[in-house]
Amino acid sequence: MKSKYKFLTAIAFMALTGCATKQYPQAPMVTGEEASALDCKAITQEIAKMHSVQTEINNTGQFDGRTVLGFLGDFGIGNGMAKSEAQKKSTARLTQLESLKAVKCQG
Fold first, then answer.
1. What are phi and psi of 75, to 5 degrees?
2. Residues 6+ apart with CB under 8 A from 26
3. What gap in Å lies between CA 91 and CA 57, rounded to an integer?
4. Phi/psi at 19 (nearest 5 deg)?
5. What does the pLDDT look like over 4-59, one tens digit per residue?
6. Is residue 94 within 8 Å of residue 50, measured between CB atoms?
7. 3-state secondary structure at position 22
């Protein structure tokens, strides 16, 4: 009977740690269609949105219960990788938008 409880406890622990990876917002690359369709005002709005996304990524990355569970599951590697990937994508999109702004919003 004890082994049954140990087994159920182990399963519950794995389920909790498996769901502990934080969900970070993902920023897609600027597509060619998007680049041609965006005007100066829309580009400025998209840049503002990307700054909000970056703030959300940083807020999601703060220490909480999922951080503890993620650390117990994989020493926090999954959460660190997810945050890093989200930051890279948001920075890449922001760079694209800034370049687009430099071309389209001269003056």
1. 60, 25
2. 86, 89
3. 11
4. -95, 10
5. 666 666 555 555 444 456 677 889 999 999 999 999 999 999 999 999 999 998 88
6. yes
7. coil
Amino acid at 15: A
Q: Please tell me whether the overall predicted TM-score, pTM, comes out greater than 0.85 for this model.
A: no
Q: For residues 107 and 105, give the distance between their C-alpha atoms in angstroms, rounded to a whole number.
A: 6
State the DSSP code for 19.
Answer: T
Alpha helices, DSSP H only, in the chain?
Answer: 2-18, 32-37, 40-60, 65-74, 77-104
d(CA 29, CA 40): 18
Phi, psi of 64 (to 5 degrees): -155, -170
By CB neighbour count within 10 A (0-12 exposed, 13-18 middle, 19+ buried), where does 28 fall?
A: exposed
